[in-house]
Amino acid sequence: MSDTIIRFDRVSKVFPEGTRAVDDVSFDIFDGECITFVGPSGCGKTTTVKLLNRLVEPTGGRIWLNNQDTAQTDVIALRRSIGYVIQDVGLFPHMTVSQNIALVPRLQGWSEKKRNERTEELLHLVSLDPATFRDRYPHQLSGGQKQRVGVARGLAADPPVILMDEPFGALDPITRAQLQDEFLRLRRRLKKVILFVTHDMDEAIKLGDRIAVMRSGRIVQFDTPRKILREPADPFVRDMVGREGGIKLMKLLRIADIMDPADGMTIPADRLSEAERRMAESGKDILLAVDKEGRFRGTLSYEQFIRSEHPGDATQLDRTCPVVEASDRVDTTLENMLKHKRVWLPVVGEDQKLRGIVTLTHFACFFSAVETLSGGTP
Amino acid sequence: MSVIDYFIKNIGLILKLTIEHIEITLIAVAISTVIGVAIGIFITRYRRAATAVIGIAGILYTIPSLALFGILIPFIGIGLKPTLIALILYSQLALIRNTFVGIIHIDPSIREAGKGMGMSNWQFLRMVELPVALPVIMAGIRTAAVMNIGTATIAAYIGAGGLGWLIFRGIASVNSNQIIAGAVPVILLAVGVDYLFILLERALTPAGLRH
Asked: Which of A354, B110, B194, B195 could form a disulfide with A296 if both were Cys (CB 3.0 to 4.6 A apart)?
């Protein structure tokens, strides 16, 4: 594994009135990871992340950030090194969008020029046109726009770690899905450690590299979304995932995860005359033609081959066969196949090189595997 | 002799007393603002003290002004000093309460965001709490100023000077012209200051809060 950025070592938080909000929690977070903390309200997920920037002080255990004990770090410096985005955004109402975004840089003494450049850059990053939004006040923004500004503000001083406490929780479903997608796009561009709190398992699955499922102050399961969907640790996690584990997993997986390589089914496009021999050898009655670079050129079926007057002529190739990319989602691909009545499709990479083949059987296998592994009943 | 004649004849005196009146009010408002805002901020930090502090300020506010002067005179004598003390004491309720309310009514999410972003207590007070609470604090200062103009009029009775002097002299000598020469400027002053502060409040409200 890569470097540990954050380590919780047997951390507890008991509030003065006796509530055990976080109960002996330990975990490591590695460089570049996005961890989603999910659970019902009162499970301690928000308290857990607030322990990191010391908005809540632990009553037991130790927390390490970049190998430094956070209890020994100056609390102001600690918080400035951690971006913070919350559900109610908390924009300062008397400051413009750019003043809000540039606040932490201002506190850190950045020059005005540098602050302006950074604000510009961040507004672009969160898909707000700087000319339009720079000088607006928070009350002139929609909920979605506010949270975009909130995210930009959290990123302003380029902190290596970002805490997001149900940032999309108060938004309508459409805006929410949109911001989730942009979050994923953003994450590909900025390699940051993100601790993301949500009560929505779907959101946790969609956004997290790993998910910490919490209940009553404890982490019940800390795993990748696939692992949680396929092997929920206990009935509680299974309930959180819901009855549609298979459908959710399908949204998560890519064609590359379920396809088979096209071994034995390929033929160089300039040697189609060998088709009959290759079909005999492989027992397949369809071959996939590739060029010298391995790019997919078309399909050749046995009927086409024997009906042809000039066997081996490149004109025999059926070039109308659609392809699917290895990085495409499983669910949309299945829908496309059903719509276009295809029982199989060639899979190509981004470079159009043939990567394999996916058939309806692969989908059937995928679903039966999900059902048996999660122990669900049909 | 008509009122107008009296005005023209005594314009120098009336102007002098008006300026005196403004001076007393201004000094009292300035000092009470510093004290009241400071106490108001203090009790947002020590919430447990808030009820007691605002309660005391409330009691002070209910003391009739002549009674308050009566208590102060044996200790401090007459003149400007007991007047200023009385005006400052009367102003505290409006200033402390408005500062306190203006600050504690700031949205908790704003507070949490500021804290979580790593603003120190002082930075948050200066950059967020005071600017956001400013319109409410200004309303408190306005109340105090208008009230001080009224109370300062009565303070002429204990030798503070100002336009009240004309009124008391007029009453004593049954000179209605003189009474009016004192009363009208005081009324105009009170109404004018009130209006001025409304304008000031508007000008000082941060653009993002004007909606």
From this structure: A354
